[in-house]
């Protein structure tokens, strides 16, 4: 699986740990920034990762900032992106199974490395269940003016 990852300066250290995890799990993991702990604007990173996912250059994305919330807000402005901030493994699994989320957002100020790794594992292991959830995900796509079949890569 190809998992684009990015963080702002507050998420940089956690991103480094998650890059190691993604490598251990055997996933391709393009790092779309930031590349040190110097201050950056999180919307720029969210845009880079979100566009990679929306264009099909990545299957999923992971975004990390202090809370995970700003990254989610910014990424969700990109048509075809369904970004979810998750702070536990259950919500990470459920957002894949029920919402077909394609970008996971994490809060470095909230999560320790071990919990963040568990969340990433749960998110990447889960699969969209389809069925009754398909209609709901299609309604989300329709809100952005893009009729899309759930589970399909956005064009």
Description of the structure:
With 155 residues, this protein is an alpha/beta fold. The chain has one domain: Ribose 5-phosphate Isomerase B, Chain: A (3-Layer(aba) Sandwich). A 4-stranded parallel β-sheet has the order 1-2-4-3, with helices on both faces. α2 crosses α3. The protein starts with a strand and ends in a 12-residue tail after the last helix.
Topology:
Blueprint: E1 3-7, H1 12-24, H2 42-54, E2 60-65, H3 69-75, E3 83-85, H4 89-97, E4 103-107, H5 113-125, H6 132-143
Helix pairs in contact: 1-5, 2-3, 4-5
Concise structural overview:
The protein has helices at residues 12-24, 42-54, 69-75, 89-97, 113-125, 132-143, and strands at 3-7, 60-65, 83-85, 103-107.
Corresponding CATH superfamily:
Sugar-phosphate isomerase, RpiB/LacA/LacB
Number of helices: 6
Give the end-to-end Cα distance, rounded to a whole number of Å. 18 Å
CATH topology: Ribose 5-phosphate Isomerase B, Chain: A
- What's the helix-strand series? EHHEHEHEHH
Helix content: 40-55%
Q: What's the number of structural domains?
A: 1
Q: What keywords describe this structure?
A:
155 residues, alpha/beta, Ribose 5-phosphate Isomerase B, Chain: A, 4 strands
């Amino acid at each position: 699986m190809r998992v684009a990852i990015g963080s702002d300066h507050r998420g940089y250290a956690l991103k480094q740990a998650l890059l190691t995890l993604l490598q251990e799990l055997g996933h391709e993991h393009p790092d779309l920034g930031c590349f040190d702990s110097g201050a950056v604007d999180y919307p720029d990173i969210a845009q880079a990762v979100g566009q990679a996912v929306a264009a099909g250059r990545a299957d999923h994305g992971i975004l990390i900032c202090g809370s995970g919330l700003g990254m989610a807000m910014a990424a969700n402005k990109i048509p075809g992106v369904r970004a979810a901030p998750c702070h536990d493994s259950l919500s990470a699994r459920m957002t894949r199974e029920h919402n077909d989320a394609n970008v996971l957002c994490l809060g470095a100020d909230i999560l320790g490395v071990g919990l963040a790794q568990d969340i990433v594992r749960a998110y990447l292991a889960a699969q969209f269940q389809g069925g009754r959830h398909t209609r709901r995900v299609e309604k989300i796509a329709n809100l952005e003016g893009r009729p899309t079949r759930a589970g399909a890569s956005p064009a």
